[in-house]
Amino acid sequence: MGFNKYFKAIVTALDVKKPKPYPDALLKGAERLGVPVDECAVVGDSIVDIHAGKSAGARTVAVLSGLFSRKELEREKPGLIIEDINWFPKFFVINR
């Protein structure tokens, strides 16, 4: 599809024995990047994404663009909740 040039590592459910909500794919991605998982952020729009990120030991960001409500995502206690994925880079520029 031509988007591989934008990523240093790609891990899919096919690359692990246990897909989300297990943290295996996230751990493998951090390993491939050579980055400690606790320095990674998992950004997702589902409770499964947040659960997997927390299980891996990564920071978690919930995005309110999916099927889950704010209340449902808040129950998972992500580190940050944002309205839209386009807001994500602005958060890190502002808070550096």
Summarize the structure.
This protein has 4 helices and 3 strands, in the order H-E-H-E-H-E-H. The protein is an alpha/beta fold and 96 residues long. It has a 3-stranded parallel β-sheet with strand order 1-2-3.
Describe the structure.
- This protein is α/β, with parallel strands linked by helices and about 100 residues long.
- Helices cover about 35% and strands about 10% of the residues.
- The chain has four helices and three strands; from the N terminus they run H-E-H-E-H-E-H.
- The chain has a three-stranded parallel β-sheet.
- Helix 2 links the parallel strand 1 and strand 2.
- The relative contact order is 0.14.
- The mean pLDDT is about 90.
Give the key terms.
alpha/beta; Rossmann fold; three-stranded parallel sheet; 4 helices
List the helices and strands and how they pair.
Elements: H1 24-33, E1 41-44, H2 47-56, E2 59-63, H3 70-75, E3 80-82, H4 88-94
**Low-confidence residue ranges:** none
Average of the residue pLDDT scores: 89
What's the tally of helices? 4
Amount of beta strand: 5-15%
